[in-house]
Amino acid sequence: IVELSKRVQAIKPSPTLAVTARAARLKAEGKDIIGLGAGEPDFDTPQHIKDAAIAAINKGFTKYTAVGGTPGLKNAIIAKFKRDNNFDYSAKQILVSCGGKQSFFNLTLSVINPGDEVIIPAPYWVSYPDIVLIAEGKPVIVEAGIEQGFKITAAQLEKAITPKTRMFVINSPSNPSGGVYTFDELKALGEVLLKYPNILIATDDMYEHILLSGGKFVNILNACPALHDRTIVLNGVSKAYAMTGWRIGYCGGPAHIITAMENIQSQSTSNPASISQAAAEVALNGDQSCIVPMVEAFKERNQFITGALNAIPGVVCLLSEGAFYAFADVREAISGLHAKGVINDSTDIAFSEYLLEHSGVAVVPGSAFGSEGYIRLSFATHMTNLENALRRIAKALG
Ligand code: PLP
Predict the structure, then answer these.
(1) Which of 31, 121, 253, 316 lies at a C-alpha separation of 20 to 30 Å from 81?
(2) Does the predicted interface ipTM exceed a cut of 0.90?
(3) Is any ligand 1 atom within 6 A of the Cβ of residue 230?
(4) Closest C-alpha to 13, from 135, 131, 113
């Protein structure tokens, strides 16, 4: 048997995709399962976006495009950055990739050498540390629990910085915590970073439009424009326009980094699907009101699920400020079940397995996101599902 590379031995498959697959398998076996594991909107892609893709196919727009994206889509992205974020980018500072995941992958492979450190606040999106490991870098995890709203402080950031630090990753609104950094919090982090000119900043704004408690979206560059020359702004159409399957992510940043990322992409996937690019162009240029009903639904579900979770003894959950996940502190509930001998060990994995078996509800253990003692419940599913799921969880823990 062939020995695999050290690179691949260092990583694990995406735990969120694994939970989704396990729930689907149990369902296929005829079990009554409610999946709250998935990280994608339950809504359909808006019709005008689908129509653009169909028109692209019928026009024969079905060939290779420029590796880094069509001029039309790049222009739409430039306009979007100006309109929503007040950022000025030219076409050579923009790269379109096959999903936000590939954007981060290209970036990491372009700037990380073996042993370089990447500071990642936890709870984090599952792919950041593993992608850093693929690049043979070292993830440096900075923990922020529920007591601090799942947001790291400037002091924590500064403490984590070493001469080997090469990049800092920030994701607000956060998957999984739902936390959103304020302007002042971003400014405080930015002021630390200003002191260390060798550190790049990757800001993952994937959930920019899914703000659940009002207010306007802010990014670390709005709070600290002086970081512009070493910040890469990552975004995509997956979550905002319910387009997860179309695989379009994009980013803006310094031209030499964007060129390096494009070179990596040119030797891996080449361009993202031409048809998806045509659709994404219309998503960004078209009427943005299609986002509103989705966000309204997420707000209603957020209120419901947070209330229902907090009503369960041993469970504490903050109202999410963005994205579409509830990240509940279940440490007390875990201890309770463990003390009663209902679960064998006091981990969130055992707890999540208990929930799957005894309530038929699939959730993702917090340890998958670097935060032991929590579970993530996606509310990107309709209210009836959520009501049933929460009733069953309450019963299983009652
Ligand atoms: N960034 C965050 C924080 C995410 O949650 C996700 C998807 O789950 C992505 C990036 C990647 O999205 P895409 O589906 O466009 O690759």
Answers:
(1) 121
(2) yes
(3) no
(4) 131
